[in-house]
Design brief:
By secondary structure, the protein is α+β, with helices and mostly antiparallel strands. It contains 7 helices and 8 strands; from the N terminus they run H-E-E-E-E-H-E-H-H-E-E-E-H-H-H.
Amino acid sequence: MSLPMMSGSALNARRQELSEVKAAARYLRFGEFQVDLQREELLKRGSRVRIPSKVFQVLLALVERPGEIVTREVLRVRLWPGGTFVNYDANVNTTVNKLRLALGDSPDKPTYVETIPRQGYCFLGSVERSNELLKTSGVLTITTPDAVDAQQAVSPIIAKKIVSGKFAALFTNGWGAAILLCGILIGVGIVLLMHRPS
């Protein structure tokens, strides 16, 4: 499989286009997602979502024109320059389906990517542009008079990931089993000591 070469003028035009977009705003935000245009990454709540380059290009084509129909022809030209021989329809469908999967979207009840029959696709979400990455700390904001409680409130999902990750590491190197065995032996010792005949 050979990759098509871009002419010097096409390459310069693409560089110019990217530099204009980067100068305007580095990040695009929609829902719980952010797009880093400079690094060409999709982030969900601050964590990187790995997507192929073509899927990222489809995402860009859609978020650049929210609410507008992006035709299949526009996607074909953007993804496969002239001289590339692929089954465009099947590849566009597959690429859009991979994007939906990455966004947790559904073609039946779309949140972000709507299929417009016999035309193309439309991005449904509102897109904000920014030069700053929205940081997510994983700490829930709770309105309580006690500030200590608010600072110590951690999202249950994040806490579960932290705890399960640490326990998984313990058990993979054998220390977890040793600690568990010590805990059981100490527990049995305490029970025997408490129920010892006088």
